[in-house]
Amino acid sequence: MLHKFKGTGGAPARPDALQILTGLMGGVAGIGAAALLTQLAGVPLLMAPFGATCVLLFAAPGAPLAQPRNVIGGHLIAATVGLVMMNVFGSGIWQMAVGVGVAIALMQFFRAVHPPAGANPLVVLTAGVHDWSFLATPVLAGSVVLVAIALVINNIGQAKQWPQYWV
């Protein structure tokens, strides 16, 4: 049984300098744009899981988990689960556990798995968010801003094409 924990190979190859630069530029531009728009519009467009979303969007843009459907849909699904849990059952240990589990199951069911979104029920439940407007800002608006930035950053250069799919 312990042999299963050994692994089957070494670490993946280091990305080339261009991909590392893309990750740097994408993270700065994505979070910077959301933060700036938050300041200018006076509405929240940031939440902690968006940092992890940037990792997928700009360091692994070809992954299914980094496609617009997954980013936007996954965040909306998981945040909705968190809000349902909060408004129906309140906040607690079991609500957090069930919220994350249900969010994972629904993201799988709707083919919109986005790992950073798995934290959304925890964000909602630990912050005590009851207001359904949370789905509009920061969840939807912030996700759309990050996807828009990824559309620009991930298509710089002749050979690049992102996304792989929309729906």
TrEMBL record:
Keyword ATP-binding recorded: no
InterPro entries: HPP, TM_HPP
Transmembrane segments: 20-38, 45-66, 72-89, 96-114, 134-153
Keywords noted in UniProt: Membrane, Transmembrane, Transmembrane helix
Positions of the HPP transmembrane region domain: 14-163
Pfam family, one: TM_HPP
Domain of life, per lineage: Bacteria
Record bears the keyword Transmembrane helix: yes
Protein name: HPP transmembrane region domain-containing protein
Organism: Litchfieldella anticariensis (strain DSM 16096 / CECT 5854 / CIP 108499 / LMG 22089 / FP35)
